[in-house]
Design brief:
The structure is a homodimer. Chain A is an alpha/beta fold. Chain A is built from 17 helices and 25 strands. In chain A, a hairpin with a 5-residue loop joins strand 5 and strand 6. Chain A is globular. Chains A and B meet through strand 4, helix 13, strand 18, strand 19 and helix 14 of A and strand 4, helix 13, strand 17, strand 18 and helix 14 of B.
Chain lengths: 505, 505
Amino acid sequence: MAGRIANEKFLTKVTDIETIVKMVKDGDKIGVSGFTGAGYPKAFPVALAAQIKAAHERGEQFMVSLFTGASTAPELDGELAGVDGLKFRTPYQGDPVLRGKINDGTTYYSDIHLSHLHNQIAYGFFGKLDWAVIEVAGITAEGELIPSSSVGLNRTYLERADKIVLEVNQWQTEDLFGLHDVYYGTEAMPPNRQPIPITAAGDLIGQKTLKVDFDKIVGIVMTDAADRNSPFKPLDDDSRAIAGHLIDFFTTEIKAGRLPKNLFPLQSGVGNIANAVLEGLLESDFEHMTSYTEVIQDGMISLIDAGKVDVASATSFSLSPDAAEHINNNAAKYRGKMVLRPQDISNNPEVIRRLGVISCNGMIEADIYGNVNSTHICGTRMMNGIGGSGDFTRNASISCFVSPSIAKNGDISAIVPMVSHHDHTEHDVSVIITEQGLADLRGLAPRQRSRVIIEKCAHPDYKDILLDYVAQAERVSKAMQTPHDLTQCLSFHQRFNETGSMKIK
Amino acid sequence: MAGRIANEKFLTKVTDIETIVKMVKDGDKIGVSGFTGAGYPKAFPVALAAQIKAAHERGEQFMVSLFTGASTAPELDGELAGVDGLKFRTPYQGDPVLRGKINDGTTYYSDIHLSHLHNQIAYGFFGKLDWAVIEVAGITAEGELIPSSSVGLNRTYLERADKIVLEVNQWQTEDLFGLHDVYYGTEAMPPNRQPIPITAAGDLIGQKTLKVDFDKIVGIVMTDAADRNSPFKPLDDDSRAIAGHLIDFFTTEIKAGRLPKNLFPLQSGVGNIANAVLEGLLESDFEHMTSYTEVIQDGMISLIDAGKVDVASATSFSLSPDAAEHINNNAAKYRGKMVLRPQDISNNPEVIRRLGVISCNGMIEADIYGNVNSTHICGTRMMNGIGGSGDFTRNASISCFVSPSIAKNGDISAIVPMVSHHDHTEHDVSVIITEQGLADLRGLAPRQRSRVIIEKCAHPDYKDILLDYVAQAERVSKAMQTPHDLTQCLSFHQRFNETGSMKIK
């Protein structure tokens, strides 16, 4: 314990989690660490869930509002949702139990851009935060905090919550020290804000540790528990094809003089497909690449290890168990090659636009005019959330969306007449890629886009009914800028709801 | 002439417009000055339209691609569209003739964020530009250009086009010199871009003039013609009510400590309602306000003259004839109180977010979950375009949309179950205001938003059918995050298409 808490004063705050959670009340607003299953508190949520369950069994009302970096883990979102303990949740989630509670109406979910939540809290959109519950890898002799495997909104919550709980997780290696860059400039409010001085992906502009107001610390608990690290699916044919189309596109752009040989910094969304695209880049000829992205996944570590990527900036790890063990044993050797920042910096429009980041994110569906749905199945059912995809897409030099062209054995087409929920509009999407091909939408008007998207990206099983829709829409539409038949534009989704397939039987 | 062209070398380039337009060819890509009817070339488009018309009469193909700052005027967009001369148009328009050609399919129109076009051209999305045709107020002894009443994308076009045409318009006052701030930093491409060093609305970071490569100048023509300046509608009851709701909201926010007494810098969209809101602020108690916006309209000049606004930053004027005459006679006295910048700076996400700009834009319709349609009537017919509304909305501290709650004598409701076209998503909209009231959506999940929007903003004639839709959607929806009945969500628009009214007869 003393090894992880190098400041004696802080040792006096060490206590047990039950003592702490007894102070949590119905309606409290709790900001916790955690981003894509990395660096979330391991003890507090489970203890709080038990207390909420007991309260409910006594017939008492007890629900809290939960703020995180992004998604967390079964022992956080899952536990609290499982006891109907979450009244409100923001900004992102990916837990099956919580997803159920959101979609059955138990939990109000505000799905917002990950770079925006810092400002929205700072500007007072959510009122005062009661708690900050933050996992750290250690406490320095100077009384500052060594972040663990994610930074997320830890700075924001520590600066603003009334009460602070620290979980010192001994599973996290102390060698993470030096991989973080905590910038405090965005804590200033207008008119006192200055430019964020990042001009290259690896620039260090902050400090290695998080500050903490000792007097606000309610308790410190020791934990020793692994992050929720899930294995990635192996590279399949679809992912390999998508990565191939992207590499071909980059190669063409370099030849045309529109991209430098080492590309612009890459952003890659969270999940299997995005990771597979990174794995695919291992087989490319590009060298000295950099990454300005949200999470460091297995594929990025492979690219760094292979010497293809010089430096990667993110806010969190998102690793398989094997890769997590590798990082835990080798963190020190990645100093200078990786940097974890607060998420309002990792995802900041200012920096993304300045660096010319190329974004690449997964999607649920795209429509024939290039609008993208990242969040809702058939317009109503929340899957995960928009996450950082909007932060990057809107500000990227080239914004790509990737998906296999079909899902559910072909009953769902990723290309539809009109998306059933709009997260990214026609104004923001440059490139759409499926295993079928790549649609380059740059500089095209809507009616030009519809031809290219269907030709290049739609699955053969859906090409004809999509072209039929285009013909029908252009026949009945009152105008030709964005032709639609309003009685048929959502017919793919209506058919799926009614028959279980978007295909016409 | 010599007075306006202070460099003798440039005098040798003066010629007549017919000589110049003879060099334009079918398929040429032409970047012209002009933003909301200010500072567009007056001679070139009319002469080009005549030449295109003559070519068509000879049975020859002749269409061009036209790039501007934003909307222009009848003698530019109207003339060229009127002779079927526009194959492609970007990034914004507001001309009735061109609107017709876009909606009948003659002209391909790429409707994009105004801050994005500089980068999209610089990154090569549209290929090489053939022409830059730029109106200026004069040419300095040093051979640089004094911009006229807008800056727009003049720097971008001058830097990149093969051939340059200058129109020296003697109607524009030379006293505009000193009101412009032309920043060249965003001409650098990644990885060589630096932070944009604006930390307050009035900061001057560039130069007063535009650079020009003398050798690329094909010709200089002298003109003497007024901008297309249209009178604003007088303040009506709806606009006064909307302005009142906004002032009440600001007052509450200041009392709650969420806004400083002089607010954050204001952005105000283009047009009558936005101008009316500014006029409304004349009657507020706020002082020492600033503005970081896109255009300076009459209302902003009134606020500056009244000493309520200290400084306004924009890319263009957009004035009534009376206000234009006032500026032409008094431009010098506004130095230090107004600054016109390139539109990739006036609308830049980096600066908007840093300054905490409060955005306020008009809309066609909003839906019950806070999505906004700024562009398409009934999902298909282009009205004008997204303009800068996305640049500001996505990055503002508080993003407001305003509209009267009904249009066309009540046959159209501005609040609908699902917008028929999505330009701003639920993730981006903080506040919706109609004459009925103000819906504060900050921190709310979709089902919370639907109640507030209908209660505060919908017209009484539509409240019941909107609430009926909510009940129906929540009954049939497969999930409760964003309940929708996909067979009914566009029923308001379908009914309007069929019966001429969104009301149920």
